[in-house]
Design a protein that fits this description.
The chain is of the alpha/beta class. Helix content is about 55%, strand content about 10%. It has a seven-stranded parallel sheet with strand order 3-2-4-1-5-6-7, with helices on both faces. The structure holds guanosine-5'-diphosphate. Guanosine-5'-diphosphate (GDP) binds next to α5. The site of guanosine-5'-diphosphate has 14 residues, from α5.
């Protein structure tokens, strides 16, 4: 075929062949990266038309999921998350693992911009055939981001990724959400900055299975060691994040790839210990059940805010509440009534 002919064919050919449920499932199970990416786009779609296909695909993939270790990684912007994930991911790939990195950016659903996605990140890792990096899903409420990330985790597991890293910016509510999706939760910190400066609340330290003080290099080695000792003392006063597991602090230099292998050794020890005690499996079972409830919340919220009656009533009611003429509880009652009536009319 001549080049011109090929070009014409390309122009007139449909942009993308539509895939059947079987195409998606087979493609993912074979580890086909193009189909993997398309399946994730499908499960991330907000369109009602895609929901049914996505759910059927997920149902068929479900028996092939669950075999990875799911690791949450958090820390304030600039702490070195992407540098750490690059070093950590490359280390895992050297050990023969397949690594999926999913970013979860709670701000993207509000501002439509993304803290995590703005820069070129993890250049080495993104060139590795055994790595798969996916930016944060956007759109919808926080619960929507959570559902999509959870389902994407399952799809990656079915595609043979045995380590899933869920990265989130440490800005508050997203940590609790990520904790509810992972087996192991890693908190990246810096030495020298006070906890408050780092925006890290005690509650977030309580979620962590390991505290890693990054940038332990050059002049920063001694302060990092000191911070490690302080955090090791502090965690003794906190409730354990995982039953039977003692959270400890470690130092590392993601930039120099120093101390990164040790973190993986800690995670492997965690998996071994919690699997033996049954804590690993119990947490996963509880997470699945919790997930049902978060989907209920997400779907009810979406239905509520997309109801025409609610949309019409909302501005007036908000103004009344802001002006102090309507109590918040009465406002909600009125809105729920509009919502119920709207449903009955349909
Ligand atoms: P993120 O915003 O948490 O993803 O942080 P980045 O990975 O983008 O890192 C922020 C800055 O810190 C970059 O300039 C990195 O080169 C630097 N950085 C990351 N890890 C280290 C480290 O271990 N040591 C030093 N000295 N710098 C680091």
């Amino acid at each position: 075929m001549g080049t011109d002919e090929a070009a014409t064919r390309q122009k007139t050919a449909p942009r993308r062949r539509q895939l059947s449920v079987d195409d998606y499932v087979q493609g993912v199970l074979e580890g086909d990266r193009v189909i993997l990416a398309r399946t994730i786009t499908l499960v991330e779609s907000n369109s009602a038309a895609h929901l049914e296909t996505a759910q059927e695909v997920l149902k068929q993939l479900l028996p092939h999921t669950g075999k990875s270790i799911r690791i949450g990684i958090t820390g304030v912007p600039g702490v070195g998350k992407s540098t750490f994930i690059e070093a950590f991911g490359c280390h895992l790939i050297e050990q023969g693992h397949k690594v999926a990195v999913l970013a979860i950016d709670p701000t993207s659903s509000r501002t439509k911009g993304s803290i995590l996605g703005d820069k070129t990140r993890m250049e080495l890792l993104s060139r590795e055939p055994n790595a798969f990096i996916r930016p944060s899903p956007t759109g919808g409420v926080l619960g929507g981001v959570s559902r999509k990330s959870k389902e994407t985790t399952l799809v990656c597991e079915a595609a043979g990724f045995d380590v899933v890293l869920l990265e989130t910016v440490g800005v508050g509510q997203s940590e609790t959400m990520v904790r509810s999706m992972v087996d192991f939760f890693l908190l990246l910190m810096l030495a020298g900055a006070g906890d408050e400066l780092q925006g890290i609340k005690k509650g977030i330290m309580e979620l962590a299975d390991a505290i890693v003080i990054n940038k332990a290099d050059g002049d920063n080695i001694a302060p990092a060691q000191q911070a490690k000792a302080e955090y090791n003392r502090a965690v003794h006063y906190l409730a354990p994040a995982t039953q039977g597991w003692q959270t400890k602090a470690y130092t590392c230099s993601a930039l120099n790839n120093d101390g990164v292998a040790k973190i993986w050794a800690v995670i492997e020890a965690f998996r071994q210990q919690t699997t033996a005690s049954g804590v690993f499996e119990n947490r996963r079972r509880a997470q699945m059940v919790d997930w049902v409830h978060s989907i209920i919340k997400e779907q009810l919220l979406t239905q509520f805010y997309s109801s025409l009656a609610v949309q019409q009533a909302l501005p007036g009611i908000e103004a009344d509440v802001a002006n102090g003429v309507l109590p918040a509880t009465s406002a909600v009652k009125a809105l729920l009534n509009s919502f119920e009536n709207d449903k009955e009319d349909k």
